[in-house]
Amino acid sequence: MIDNNPSTAPALQSLQPQLQRGGRSTDEQTGVRWGDGWILLGLWLAVAIADLFWVLRDQAPPAWDQGEHLTRALNYWRVLQEPAWLDGDWWTTLWRLSPGYRAPLVYLATVPIFNLLGRGFDQAVMVNLLFAGVLMVLLYALGCCLFNRQTGLWAAGLSLVVPAFYSLRLDYLLDLGLIVCVTAAFTSLTYWRGALARYRWMWALAFGLWAGLAILTKPTAVFFFC
């Protein structure tokens, strides 16, 4: 039965935003987001403890590629101990530390870990915990955008236990950093598609930034965007 009483129109209009949000008030939505954040943080901490236990128990020397990546990261650490930001020769030396298709982003991200925890292969592996945390947030955001928050939580949680990702997280390679940058680029593109016109430029800028960082991780990342 349709109510044509004009006095009910303001009440219906006031309820419309809440109905569009699935019946939740703004405070309830904020509480849900905080709850999801604590869930993601708890999952990440549990995995961080497990990874740390594995790294401390694993005494095997790094393989060929992993050893080369560690050497390059240590070279970046050495050059960045005495930075000369206004010296062009210093910048040339910095960028020449990574010739070929092994770009410097993961090595540069490892330098603060060396400064904080010391230098070594086990310390270098810890940078993957940072990448794993960022990947969780990206997959959660992507799941919420395309489906719902439950899908986002499942996607974020599964990213921590998928065997391929788990093995990458316990090794020092460029691939996990590449996965994060490519995922971030496509997440930005997904949000760009559904954004209001006046906000699209920000998501386009974010896509370009992450695509550039992906290429700085591994130049072959360009094939993901072809």
Describe this structure in words.
This protein is mostly helical and 226 residues long. The protein has helices at 9-20, 26-57, 64-79, 88-95, 105-117, 121-125, 127-146, 149-158, 163-169, 175-194, 200-217. The chain has one domain. Helix 2 (26-57) packs antiparallel against helix 7 and helix 2 (26-57) runs parallel beside helix 8. The longest helix is centred in the N-terminal third of the chain and has 32 residues, at 26-57. The protein is globular, with a radius of gyration of 22 Å. Residues 7-23 have low confidence and may be disordered.
Q: Which residue ranges are poorly predicted, with pLDDT under 50 across at least 5 consecutive positions?
A: 7-23
Q: Give the mean pLDDT.
A: 88
Count every beta strand, where a strand is a DSSP E run of 2 or more residues: 0
Helical residue percent band: over 70%
Give a short synopsis of this structure:
This protein is mainly α and 226 residues long. It has helices at 9-20, 26-57, 64-79, 88-95, 105-117, 121-125, 127-146, 149-158, 163-169, 175-194, 200-217. Helix 10 (175-194) packs antiparallel against helix 11 (200-217).
What are the salient characteristics of this protein?
11 helices; globular; 226 residues; mainly alpha
Task: Present the secondary structure layout.
Blueprint: H1 9-20, H2 26-57, H3 64-79, H4 88-95, H5 105-117, H6 121-125, H7 127-146, H8 149-158, H9 163-169, H10 175-194, H11 200-217
Helix pairs in contact: 2-7, 2-8, 3-5, 7-8, 7-10, 10-11
